[in-house]
Write a structure and sequence with these properties.
Layout: E1 22-25, E2 29-33, E3 39-44, E4 47-50, E5 55-58, H1 62-79, E6 86-89, E7 94-98, E8 101-112, H2 115-121, E9 128-138, E10 147-148, H3 150-155, H4 161-184, E11 187-198, E12 204-207, E13 215-219, H5 229-232, H6 238-254
Antiparallel strand pairs: 1-2, 2-3, 3-7, 4-5, 6-7, 8-9, 8-11, 9-10, 11-12, 11-13
Helix pairs in contact: 1-6
The structure holds uridine-5'-diphosphate (UDP).
């Protein structure tokens, strides 16, 4: 398998990607400064965590696969008018991205019921929702990223009502585009999480990653889970599932 080509959407831009000091280390990624104050390098690790980091592990080629898959998805979204932080894939594990201030909110989009929503509301997993559901979570590891509402977000100073409206509108567009893309790959997009950020000039852009770590993806015919639930629930064949998603996306995008 060939894992993601280097993709350079901004053709006239010189790539100043020499890595300098590490700015931040998260559960699955590291972020490094570059010579350009407006750009950072993101490095994908093989570490996997779940349930607010209570479950930890590593699996083969995870970093490489998430980098490749997220590159395909961000490229597709950018081609369809979504502003993103993505600049280029640098190598197996690294991407060059615009430096952003991450809005400290996670938006979870649910097309089908699964995971914490199934548990919280006592609803069976796998039911298709007649409406698109947006969950807002406050990004605070020490609190377990609690589910909040718009008023809490404004109270916390995380976003204004106008920014929330812009966030939901952008998220809705992203959801429609992703449903379409995964449908072409014979995959149901059950739910996913995104993070948005603001660039130095104040523009709201899609940031972080979109990968099987941050989505629930089920095969349309067999309903086989092709995402991080294989790790969370000890289902095995984790790397195989991520490879399957990469291959199917590459094929869908070539159509
Ligand atoms: N998710 C994520 N990061 C988080 C929490 C959730 O990427 O910190 C994704 C998760 O992979 C799933 C969706 O958001 O695709 C909904 O997750 P849920 O709230 O059901 O929580 P979970 O069951 O993952 O604890």
């Amino acid at each position: 398998m060939e894992i993601g080509e280097r993709r350079i959407p901004f053709k006239n831009e010189s790539i100043m990607s020499e890595k300098k000091e590490m700015l931040y280390e998260g559960k699955a990624k590291q972020v490094f400064a570059t010579e350009n104050p407006d750009e950072v390098v993101v490095r994908y690790k093989d570490d996997a965590t779940a349930f607010n980091a209570q479950k930890r592990g590593q699996f083969d080629r995870k970093g490489e696969l998430n980098n490749a898959i997220s590159t395909l998805i961000f490229g597709y979204l950018a081609d369809n008018g979504i502003p993103t932080h993505f600049i280029a894939k640098l190598d197996d594990r690294e991407q060059l991205v615009k430096k952003v201030d991450i809005i400290p909110l996670e938006i979870v989009v649910r097309n089908y019921v699964a995971g914490s929503m199934a548990q919280r509301l006592g609803v069976e997993e796998g039911i298709k929702s007649p409406v698109t559901i947006f969950d807002l979570c406050f990004k605070r590891d020490d609190l377990g990223d609690p589910l909040i509402n718009d008023h809490h977000a404004v109270f916390l100073g995380a976003a204004s009502y106008a920014e929330l409206a812009e966030m939901y509108a952008l998220t809705d567009k992203i959801n429609k585009l992703l449903i379409d893309l995964f449908d072409k790959a014979n995959v149901i997009l059950v739910d996913f999480k995104i993070e948005l950020g603001k660039t130095a000039d104040g523009k709201m852009v899609l940031a972080d990653e979109i990968s099987p770590d941050t989505c629930r993806l089920w095969d349309k015919d067999t309903k086989k889970k092709l995402d991080k639930d294989r790790f969370r629930r000890d289902l095995g064949e984790i790397t195989e599932a991520y490879v399957e998603i990469f291959n199917r996306l590459q094929k869908a995008l070539a159509k």
